[in-house]
Amino acid sequence: IRVSDVVVRVDHDNVEGQPLSTLRSRILGRQGSYVTLGFRRKDGVETTYYDVPLMRGSPEYFDSLKANQPLQDELERYKRQNHQLEQQRLADAQELQR
């Protein structure tokens, strides 16, 4: 996103020419939910359109996500380990049946 880019879509709905108050009410939402903003960029004679998915939240909300990241990483590690152990258990059970 660059300085001269213009918001033209919010969640794939055209918002060109709408007042800032309307944009604000459509962009803001529940923390942790996503909104997709569509932008128009003019670069000389060329015009480009692109979408950017963004997660809604206050700075404090994002700080709390960072604080919980080590726990999330540990949980994912345990899930992977559990999956590997389950695969090994299934392989052992098949071996016993032979």
Poorly predicted regions: none
Work out the helix count: 2
Order of strands, main sheet, comes to 2-1-3-4
Rg: 23 Å
Give the structural class: alpha+beta
Major sheet? 4 strands, antiparallel
Descriptive report:
With 98 residues, the protein is an alpha+beta fold. It has helices at residues 20-27, 59-97, and strands at 6-10, 13-14, 34-43, 46-55. It has a four-stranded antiparallel sheet, covered by helices on one side. Strand 1 and strand 2 (13-14) form a beta hairpin. It is elongated and about 70 Å long.
Distinctive features:
98 residues, alpha+beta, single chain, 2 helices, elongated, 4 strands
What is this entry, summarized?
The protein has 98 residues and is of the alpha+beta class.
